[in-house]
TrEMBL record, chain B:
SUPFAM superfamilies assigned to the protein according to its UniProt record, in alphabetical order: CO dehydrogenase molybdoprotein N-domain-like, Molybdenum cofactor-binding domain
SMART domains: Ald_Xan_dh_C
Assigned keywords, A-Z: Molybdenum, Oxidoreductase
Stored PANTHER family: ALDEHYDE OXIDASE 1-RELATED, XANTHINE DEHYDROGENASE
Source organism: Hominifimenecus microfluidus
Pfam families from the UniProt entry: Ald_Xan_dh_C, MoCoBD_1, MoCoBD_2
GO-annotated molecular function: iron ion binding; oxidoreductase activity
Protein name, UniProt field: Molybdopterin-dependent oxidoreductase
Every Aldehyde oxidase/xanthine dehydrogenase a/b hammerhead domain range: 19-132
Length: 158, 772
C-alpha cells in the first residue's frame, strides 16, 4: 500500500506516491540527487548526509515518508557553498576519491552555519561521523580551517 | 626550473568531486533501467550443493533470470588482476557446486525490482552436504580436508603450488649460510609475528554495470583499477574472445588494491551475456566485508642475528600466508614479506634466507591490499629490530643508522637490484628532528597517570614490478593546440590523471590545463597493466614523459617542413616554433594545417616497462598516549618522512602518505577480522569493523627527503603503498616503551593491552611473594 508525500527538494515541490518503507536516500537518488551516496547500511559512514528542514540527517536512516511536509537540501542545492569550501579541500589534495565528499561537505556547511568559528576539536567532533578512507582527515581539517580564516579576513576587509 | 612537475596543483577532477557531480558507476544513468543482480550466498564455510530448486523463486513477478552452478562454464580462472602468465592459480568458477567459504555465490538472481529479488533469494531452496571446514591456517598443510581437490585446478607458472596439500605456493630462497652466521651471532631475536586479514573499506563498494552494445559486444563499466585484466578475466570466465569485450572505468570511489581483483565483475557480465539485457550489481557493505579481497593473514617467523654492538648480520624469515578459499594474489603477496623487509638491513647483512608457504583454507579469499605483503613482513622485521635494540640497550634509531641500506649498495634480498636512489638516512634524521627524538624520553608518565611514549620504524616498497608491469601513454595534438593524453592507468582518487598530465605538460612546456586526460577504456586506451604495485607514476609516468618527448620531436619535424628549415634550427616555447630567420608557427597552426593534405599523424604511443623497481623509503615515528587503566592508545602525533624520489605533486603525495598512515594506524590498533567456529565473519559492517575516524588521532605530519631516481620520470619513484607500512611496528614499539610488553599479534587492541598489563602485574606480585 502506497502513501502520498509532499516534499520540497532543493526548492522544487514534489508530490509523489511512495512505498511506506522507501528510504529517503533512495527517494532522493531517484529524483536526480546523485551526490547522495550510500557507503554502509548501518548509519556509520555519513556519506548520505542531507538537510531535513536545515538539520543534517543521514538519509539512509530516514524514511521518505518522514520527510512529508519538509524541506530537503542536498549538495545539488548548495553548489556555490560546496565549490567555495571544496576549493579549500582541493587545494590540499584532500578530496581524493571524492566519494565521501558530498556528505562531509554538507555536514561542514551545517557546522559552520551553527558555529562560524569552531575550534579544531569542535570540527573533529562535529564531523566524527563522516568517514573517509583516503585522506587521513588532516588535509580536510586544514582546508576547513583555511576556509574559516579566509572568511574572517574577507569580513575584516569588508 | 620545473613548471608543472613538483607543483602542488589541484586535481583535474577536484571540483567535480567536491561539488558532488554524478561521476561514479551508479550515477551515470546508463544503468537506471538495467536489471539488478544479487547473489544468494552460502551460509556454510565448506559444503557441497546436493540440490538447488529455483522454480518457486523464478515465478515471482519481476524476476528475469536465475542462474546456478549448473549454468556456468567449467573452465577455471582467477579473479586476480595480474599480467600474463598469471601467477595466481586458476581455481574458480563463476559458481561452483563445491562451496569453499561463507559467502560463496550459490545462485545469481536478476530482476527489475529489488524487493522481488530479495523475495526470490529467500525462495530458492538449497540442500547442502555440509563438510568439515578448514579454518585454522596452521592446519592446512597435510590436512585431510582439501579445499581444491578438483582435477581442473591449474597453476600456470609457480613453484610449489600443489592442490593436493592445500598449497597455493611454496618456495625457499637464500644467500649465504644463514645457520652458520646465526650460530656466530651474540644475539638471535627469534619470534613469530601475526597480522590479520584487514579490509580496504574504500567508501564506494564493489560495483559493475554491463550492456551489449550496437555491435553485439559485451560492455562493462566497472569500479576497477585494472580495465585490461578485467577484460581478460571475463574472457576466461565466460569463455568468449577478448575482442568481444570492452571494459571502462568511470571515477572510482577508492580502491587500495581491493579493486585489483575482479571481485564482482564476472557475475553481472555473465547475466548480460546470457540474457542480452543490461544489468548492474552493487555490493552491499556486508558483501564488501565478507566476500571480497582483503589483506592476506600472515604469520612471519623472524630469526634475526646480531652482535652486541648492534650489527645485524643474518636474517631468516619464514612466512605462512593464508590465501583463503581461492588463490588470488596468494603466490605473489607473500614474496614481499621477505623481499621488501630484509633488504632494509643490507649494509652489514652476511646471510639471509626466506621461505614461505601459502595455504588454502575455508575463509574468504584474500587479495591485494596496499602494501601487498611488505606491510606484514615489515611489521615483523621492524618489530624484531626494535626488540633487538631493547635487548642490547641501544637507541633504536642508532641501530638503524648503523645497519640501514644505503645508496649504491646491491640488495641481494631485493632480487639483486642496485640501490640507485636512497635518502633513507636523511629521512631518519629529519623524522627525529620533527618529533624531537633526542629531547624526549622514550617513556614519560603524565600527571594523570597516562603514559606518553615513542616508537619508530622504517619501510621500503617497490615502484612497479620489475620487467613485468607495462605502462602506456598515447598523446595527440588537438586542433586548438592542446593535447589529449590517453591512458589505461586508473585514477582511483590518487590523482594519477593529474600527475600524468603534469609530466606531459612539463615536457611539452604547456599549462597542465591544456592536457585533456582520458581513461581508462580498453577500446581507446593503450595497453597498461593497470594501477597497482605502486607503478603508475613510475612506469606510466615514464611512458608519458617519453611519449611527450617523441611527440615534440614529431611536431618539430613537421614544423620544420612547413617553415622550410631544419628541425634543429627551430626554437620551441610551448606555444610557438620560431625559425632562425624569425618565421613563426604556432602549435595551433601546426595542428590545423596537419588536418589537411597531411600523411602523418601528430600523435604517439609509448609503452614502457622497467627492468628494475627502485624502492621508495620512509621513516615513521609515533608518539602515543596510553592509558594503563583501560589500555587505550591515542596516537598524539605521527611524523613520517618519505623518499619517493621527486614528488610530482607534493599535495597529492602528502595526502597519500597521511591516508596510508591512518589506514596503517587502524590496522595496528583496532581493525579486526574475527570468524566464528563455523567460519562466519563477525566484523561485517562499520559497527564491528572499526576504521579510524577524525577523533581517533592527534596529528599526522609529513615531510619529504627526496633522492633522484634516474630511471623514473623527473626522478620520481612511488608512494602509494609504502605509506601503510610503518604504523604497525612503530605503534607496537611505542606500546612496548609505554608498557614493557611486546605485542606480536595485530591489532593491538585496548583490551589486549589492559589484559597484558593485568597479567604483568599479577606475575610481578607472584614473583614478589615467592621471594618473601
Amino acid at each position: 500500500m502506497n502513501l502520498t508525500i509532499n516534499v520540497q527538494v532543493n526548492g522544487c515541490k514534489i508530490e509523489e506516491s511512495i512505498a511506506p518503507d522507501l528510504l529517503l536516500i533512495d527517494f532522493l537518488r531517484a529524483h536526480g540527487c546523485l551526490s547522495v551516496k550510500r557507503g554502509c547500511e548501518t548509519s556509520n559512514c555519513g556519506l548520505c548526509t542531507v538537510f531535513l528542514n536545515d538539520t543534517p540527517v543521514l538519509s539512509c536512516s530516514v524514511l521518505a515518508a518522514r520527510a512529508n511536509g519538509c524541506r530537503i537540501i542536498t549538495l545539488e542545492g548548495l553548489q556555490e557553498e560546496a565549490a567555495e569550501l571544496g576549493g579549500f579541500i582541493a587545494d590540499q589534495g584532500a578530496e581524493q576519491c571524492g566519494f565521501c565528499n558530498p556528505g562531509m561537505i554538507m555536514n561542514t556547511i551545517a557546522l559552520l552555519r551553527e558555529n562560524p568559528d569552531p575550534t579544531e576539536d569542535e570540527i573533529r567532533e562535529y564531523l566524527a561521523g563522516n568517514l573517509c578512507r583516503c585522506s587521513g582527515y588532516e588535509g580536510q581539517l586544514i582546508g576547513i580551517k583555511n576556509l574559516i580564516q579566509w572568511r574572517k579576513e574577507r569580513q575584516t576587509h569588508a | 626550473m620545473l613548471k608543472s612537475v613538483n607543483q602542488p596543483i589541484r586535481k583535474k577532477d577536484a571540483m567535480a568531486l567536491v561539488t558532488g557531480k554524478p561521476v561514479y558507476m551508479d550515477d551515470l544513468g546508463i544503468f537506471d533501467h538495467a536489471l539488478i543482480v544479487k547473489a544468494l550466498r552460502s551460509p556454510h564455510a565448506h559444503a557441497m550443493i546436493e540440490s538447488i530448486d529455483t522454480k518457486v523463486a523464478s515465478r515471482i513477478p519481476g524476476i528475469e533470470a536465475i542462474f546456478t552452478y549448473e549454468d556456468v562454464p567449467n573452465e577455471r580462472f582467477t579473479l586476480a588482476g595480474q599480467t600474463y602468465p598469471e601467477l595466481s592459480p586458476y581455481d574458480r568458477l563463476i559458481m561452483d557446486r563445491h562451496i569453499r567459504c561463507v559467502g560463496d555465490p550459490v545462485a545469481l538472481v536478476a530482476g527489475t525490482d529489488e524487493k522481488a529479488i530479495d523475495r526470490a533469494l529467500k525462495a530458492i531452496k538449497v540442500k547442502y552436504e555440509i563438510l568439515p571446514a578448514l579454518l585454522d591456517f596452521h592446519d592446512a598443510i597435510g590436512s585431510d580436508i582439501l579445499i581444491h581437490p578438483e582435477d581442473n585446478w591449474k597453476a600456470l607458472d609457480f613453484i610449489g603450488a600443489d592442490n593436493k596439500t592445500n598449497r597455493c605456493a611454496s618456495e625457499t630462497t637464500s644467500d649465504g649460510d644463514v645457520e652458520a652466521v646465526l650460530a656466530d651471532c651474540d644475539i638471535v631475536i627469534d619470534h613469530v609475528y601475526h597480522t590479520k586479514a584487514n579490509q580496504q573499506t574504500m567508501m564506494e563498494t564493489f560495483r559493475t554495470g554491463c550492456y551489449m552494445d550496437t555491435y553485439g559486444r559485451l560492455n562493462i563499466v566497472s569500479s576497477t583499477q585494472i580495465v585490461y585484466h578485467v577484460r581478460r578475466i571475463i574472457s576466461h570466465a565466460l569463455g568468449i574472445p577478448k575482442s568481444r569485450i570492452r571494459v571502462q572505468k568511470p571515477r572510482i570511489g577508492g580502491g587500495f588494491g581491493a579493486k585489483q581483483s575482479a571481485v564482482c565483475e564476472v557475475y553481472p557480465a555473465f547475466v548480460t551475456y546470457k540474457t542480452g539485457k543490461p544489468c548492474k550489481m552493487i555490493y552491499s557493505r556486508v558483501e564488501s566485508q565478507i566476500i571480497s579481497s582483503p589483506r592476506h593473514e600472515m604469520e612471519v617467523h623472524v630469526r634475526l642475528g646480531a652482535m652486541k654492538n648492534g650489527r645485524i648480520r643474518a636474517m631468516d624469515i619464514y612466512t605462512l600466508s593464508n590465501t583463503g578459499a581461492y588463490g588470488e594474489h596468494g603466490p605473489t603477496t607473500v614474496g614481499l614479506s621477505g623481499h621488501k623487509s630484509i633488504p632494509l638491513y643490507t649494509t652489514n647483512l652476511e646471510a639471509w634466507r626466506f621461505a614461505y608457504d601459502v595455504v588454502y583454507t575455508n575463509v574468504m579469499s584474500a587479495g591485494a591490499y596496499r602494501g601487498y605483503g611488505a606491510t606484514q613482513g615489515i611489521f615483523a622485521v621492524e618489530s624484531a629490530v626494535n626488540e633487538l635494540a631493547a635487548r642490547i640497550g641501544m637507541d633504536p634509531t642508532l641501530i638503524r643508522e648503523m645497519n640501514m641500506v644505503r645508496e649504491g649498495q646491491v640488495m641481494s634480498a631485493y632480487y639483486n637490484e642496485m640501490n640507485t636512489s636512497c635518502a633513507l638516512d636523511r629521512c631518519m634524521e629529519r623524522a627525529k628532528e620533527m618529533i624531537g627524538w633526542n629531547e624526549k624520553p622514550l617513556r614519560r608518565v603524565m600527571p594523570d597517570g597516562k603514559i606518553r611514549s615513542l616508537g619508530v620504524a622504517m619501510a621500503m616498497q617497490g615502484s612497479g614490478i620489475s620487467g613485468v608491469d607495462v605502462g602506456s601513454a598515447t598523446i595527440k595534438i588537438d586542433d586548438d593546440g592542446g593535447y589529449n593524453l590517453l591512458i589505461a592507468a586508473a585514477d582511483m582518487g590518487t590523482g594519477c590523471d593529474t600527475i600524468l598530465a603534469q609530466i606531459a605538460a612539463e615536457v611539452l612546456e604547456c599549462p597542465v590545463d591544456q592536457i585533456a586526460v582520458h581513461g581508462a577504456d580498453t577500446d581507446t586506451s593503450p595497453y597498461d597493466s593497470g594501477s597497482y604495485a605502486s607503478s603508475t607514476t613510475y612506469i606510466t609516468g615514464k611512458a608519458t614523459e617519453i611519449a611527450a618527448q617523441k611527440l615534440k620531436v614529431q611536431m618539430t619535424a613537421e614544423a620544420a617542413k612547413m617553415l622550410s628549415c631544419q628541425p634543429e634550427d627551430l626554437d620551441f616555447d610551448g606555444k610557438c616554433f620560431t625559425a632562425a630567420d624569425g618565421q613563426t608557427l604556432t602549435i595551433k597552426d601546426l595542428a590545423t594545417r596537419s588536418m589537411c593534405g597531411f600523411d602523418g599523424a601528430l600523435e604517439t604511443t609509448i609503452s614502457h616497462s622497467s627492468p628494475v623497481s627502485p624502492p621508495p623509503y620512509m621513516v615513521g615515528i609515533a608518539e602515543i598516549e596510553l592509558d594503563p587503566e583501560t589500555g587505550e592508545v591515542y596516537p598524539l602525533d605521527y611524523v613520517a618522512v618519505v623518499d619517493c624520489g621527486t614528488p610530482i605533486n607534493p599535495n597529492l603525495a602528502r595526502t597519500q602518505t597521511i591516508g596510508g598512515l591512518l589506514q596503517g594506524i587502524g590496522m595496528a590498533l583496532y581493525e579486526e577480522i574475527q570468524y566464528s567456529d563455523k567460519g562466519r565473519l563477525y566484523n561485517n559492517s562499520f559497527m564491528q569493523y572499526k576504521i579510524p575516524s577524525r577523533v581517533d588521532l592527534g596529528h599526522i605530519r609529513v615531510d619529504f627527503e627526496s633522492s633522484y631516481e634516474p630511471s623514473g620520470p623527473f626522478g620520481a619513484k612511488s608512494i602509494g603503498e609504502i605509506v601503510i607500512d610503518t604504523p604497525s611496528p612503530a605503534l607496537a614499539h611505542a606500546i612496548y616503551n609505554a608498557t614493557g610488553l611486546w605485542f606480536r599479534e595485530l591489532p593491538i587492541t585496548a583490551e589486549k593491552i589492559a589484559m597484558g598489563l593485568m597479567e604483568k602485574e599479577k606475575n610481578a606480585q607472584n614473583a614478589a611473594q615467592q621471594l618473601q
